[in-house]
Amino acid sequence: MRPVHNSVLYCLLPAPFSLVLRILVLVLVLLCITPRCQAVQAENVTVLEGGTAQISCRLQNYDGSIVVIQNPRRQTLFFNGTRALKDDRFQMVLFTPRLVRITLTNVSVWDEGGYFCQLYTDATHHQVATLSVLVPPETPTVEVKQEAVEGGEVELTCVSARSKPAATLRWIRNGREIPGVVSQQDNGKTFSGSSTIRIPVERKDNGAALSCEALHPALGGQKRIRHYRLDVYFAPTVRIVPPAGILREGDSLSLTCSVVGNPLPRNIQWSKINDTLPDRAEISGPTFQISRLSQSHNGTYLCQAQNNYGRAADHYTLLVYDNMSLTTTALPTPTTQPITFHPATPTLLTSTFAPKSEDPGAVVETHSAVPYAVIGGVLALLVFTVICVLIVTIWCSVRQKGSYRTREPILAWY
What we know:
There is one protein chain. 18% of the residues lie in helices and 42% in strands. With 414 residues, the protein is an alpha+beta fold.
């Protein structure tokens, strides 16, 4: 049988099949006459800003061909292990037939991108190692739009100025999250974010603890926390701490004015209603003292305090007894009665104690009932004594008349 030549075979096949067959034959010939193929592989890297990145190029079937590493701007960093770019942050740490590795210290977000591992053979092979830079957030800050006043609202904003990617912010109070309005801004390579809350406040909220937490992949499950305490402003309250027991002539009086407010009033004023303070009165801040009391010191003493959000006062009615009255009658102890001021309507102290004031912002005083109770007790005792005497007198009179009528028939019988 006569053999068929290849050219004849190609001619016998249709044109498309003939072309495919020629390509297959060429590939088989190349595989037979060339060594095993060389290749390069690159690994992606993620590093924190300021850290050190290791960029590795893995080689396969390396035969000494040229290896080039380039940065994202396609500038050559190393040519076969030799430095090509004057940047001391890049160092060649390993060059073997299987692995080429360089390090980059003090990494910044501007170093981010693809680093090229290129192997120059008959055909150029290259792979890209992507460098990703994480920027962890700093401890967030708290911004207060306006001061917190009793009965109003306070607006608090938690701010994370810089991170990559954007940090997750949340407000916490008493172990519970407070939903906030979140906003983020792209600053090019980094992000900033904020979370804003509005909460009503009362004076009991003064000093309440809140915290703003920043969560981020670069923190490894930890948090950056900013603690904040509410500073709620409110009008003062005043209370006079009275002495125990009753006061005799010759005793000493000591009153303490307890003031609560935010801000705390700096000045505490003592005065006597409708009179001047006694000469022997001594004032030391919240303490008021009078030595060697006499009945001339009787009266109502006033303590008042004021801040930018209102004023308040309390008064104490002093009643000094002589020693004779104490041996005959048990007397009650004087008491204090608070006075309420309306901050919206300031009033003069000399006029606020007039009866039947028509001013709605006037000071209202409840007078002590001690003198009236003493007089009423004495009158009641006198009335009771008189009634008892009358009852005894009438009873004796009736008995005497009954005895006289009983004896009269007996005398008549004799």
